[in-house]
Amino acid sequence: MALVASGSAQANQTISNADLSERVQTSDEWIRTRTGIQSRRVSTPDESLNDLAIRAGAKALEMAHWEPDTLDMVLLATSTPDDLFGSAPKVQAGLKAHNAVAFDLTAACSGFLFALVTAAQYLRTGAMQRVLVIGADQLSRFVDWDDRSTCVLFGDGAGAVALEATSAEADGLLGFRLRSDGSRGHSLTLPQIPTSLPLVNTTRHQCGGYLPIQMNGQEVYKFAVREVPAILKELLEQTSTTPEQLDWLLLHQANQRILDAVADRFSIPHSKVLSNLANYGNTSASTIPLMLDEAVRDGRVAPGHLLASSGFGAGLSWGAALLRWQGPA
Ligand code: ACO
Fold this sequence. Notes:
Elements: E1 2-10, E2 13-16, H1 17-20, H2 28-35, E3 39-42, H3 49-64, E4 73-77, H4 88-94, E5 101-105, H5 111-124, E6 130-138, H6 148-151, E7 156-164, E8 173-180, E9 188-189, E10 196-198, E11 204-206, E12 214-215, H7 217-238, E13 248-251, H8 256-265, H9 277-280, H10 287-297, E14 306-313, E15 317-324
Parallel strand pairs: 4-5, 4-6, 13-14
Antiparallel strand pairs: 1-7, 2-3, 6-7, 8-15, 9-12, 10-11, 14-15
Helix pairs in contact: 3-4, 7-8
The chain binds acetyl coenzyme *A.
């Protein structure tokens, strides 16, 4: 599987830390020092998840110089679909990828990495030749904008990568590890509304809909700084790679302190840690491809570069992958 091209899309509105302090009791100083975030992008009410995903996907196709109808699959990693039955088919239609099968994959902030590894299986078996993996989320729909402990963290966005089948020697997925632990899932949830309504006679039914994001920030923080270095260590051992061989560390963008702690654990210079948290906050499944696309387009990530990537988040779920960026032909 070769990583051929990338694309991304930003939500329409920019909300600064100062803007948020108009709504909740917080400050630019608190948010910047605790998280590294300075502003985040939030979709306008008329901007759908599908819009973001289609824009990001179209840019990746453009970079790859691929006609949309040459795609075999569109895999959409999202926790915030426009339609609970699945948003990927609408994205497939919007991209005019008429020959592609399309479905959603949900694994919160690990979603993009899980989808990338899933796509690789189709490509490696020869079942498919070209796949578009999109990570897109609009957590702004599910944030309690009056809860200062969560609302300062999240934003909206989308990122995409175009993947192509290749020979085993040229495979750009050099190794991966994926993990889940539902027994710890309570520390970060976007749960169903726990309300039931009368149906007929004595029967009842559950009401559809979701509560805002519920998070124990300290538990999630501890989980991230423990599990991300551990899984990266396993990945490096599995692939006989030393931290010095890495060109970039491409982590889920949740908190600058988490990025710094992981880099320090491997003595990786902070200059090799890709970060765009300051401008976007945590955009869930979109952070990794959004960050990758920025770095590809400004030339930091170049063909042949080796990246260690790790995603982590609700589930709890986490994973790591060692990737070689190929770039367009
Ligand atoms: N502004 C000002 N004060 C605040 C704010 C705020 N926005 N939020 C919390 N505080 C206060 C708290 O009330 C608390 O006050 P108290 O001491 O009087 O009770 C104090 O600041 C410290 O709060 P802590 O929660 O201890 O702050 P901490 O240093 O742990 O930072 C944070 C909180 C930033 C949330 C951190 O724990 C974190 O980043 N956790 C990881 C979160 C994460 O990554 N989540 C996403 C995972 S990915 C996914 O799947 C969606």
